[in-house]
Design a protein that fits this description.
Layout (H helix, E strand, L loop, with lengths): L18 E3 L5 E5 H14 L1 H12 L2 H11 L3 H4 L18 H18 L34 E5 L11 E5 H7 L4 H20 L1
Antiparallel strand pairs: 1-2, 3-4
Length: about 200
């Protein structure tokens, strides 16, 4: 290894602070600016490999769940701008990220107790395993799968807070959508009326 104060690329004598340090205590052969240039050049010359690695990382449980939970804390989601002819409602979470993660762990334990043969990664509504499948050119470009992990506000009139967060799949979240408990009660009343009409016929 060359001198820790001399960059192997630009040969400029620099202080140690200008070089990245590895976990084992060794200093990088290249200074920080040269290291960044080399990294950019490598990514340009290995775009397919970079894309494959990115997609592989995106489809891991940790990455997917982090993105799903992190999304509700984005300013554009909490304070949405008017979209054409209507104003989409935003929700400022009352639960913190750490509290939501804790709730997810409780959900997993609950599902494990209910379905001992599973790992607990199960939709609360349909009780089927959820997935972490994303595709696209970059992490922000996501094609939604109905089986994917999702997070729902059980009472649609209330924000994300402890006691109102349900972990489910995208399909069930979409089906429930903006329906309210009052609507569910009404649906059951109509179901009862229809059954009574059938019995009379």
């Amino acid at each position: 290894m060359k001198s820790k104060t001399s960059c192997a690329d630009c040969n400029t004598p620099l202080s140690k602070e200008k070089f990245y340090i590895y976990t084992d205590g060794r200093y990088s052969t290249y200074c920080k600016p040269c290291n960044s240039k080399r990294s950019l050049n490598w990514k340009k010359n290995n775009r397919i490999l970079v894309k494959e690695h990115g997609l592989k990382h995106m489809n891991t449980e940790k990455s997917f769940i982090n993105a799903t939970i992190g999304r509700i804390f984005k300013p554009s989601v909490m304070y949405p701008k008017k979209e054409r002819s209507y104003q989409r409602k935003g929700w400022v979470p009352e639960a913190t990220k750490s509290e939501i993660y804790a709730e997810l762990l409780l959900h997993i334990e609950l599902m494990k107790e209910k379905f001992p043969e599973t790992d607990g990664r199960i939709c609360r509504y349909c009780e089927k395993p959820w997935t972490y499948i994303r595709s696209g050119n970059k992490p922000g470009n996501i094609n939604v799968k109905r089986t994917n992990f999702s997070m729902d506000r059980f009472d649609t009139n209330v924000t994300y807070k402890i006691g109102n967060i349900v972990f489910c799949c995208n399909g069930c979240n979409a089906l429930k959508n903006g329906s309210t408990k009052e609507m569910w009660i009404k649906f059951l009343e109509i179901d009862k009326e229809i059954n009574q009409t059938k019995e009379k016929a």
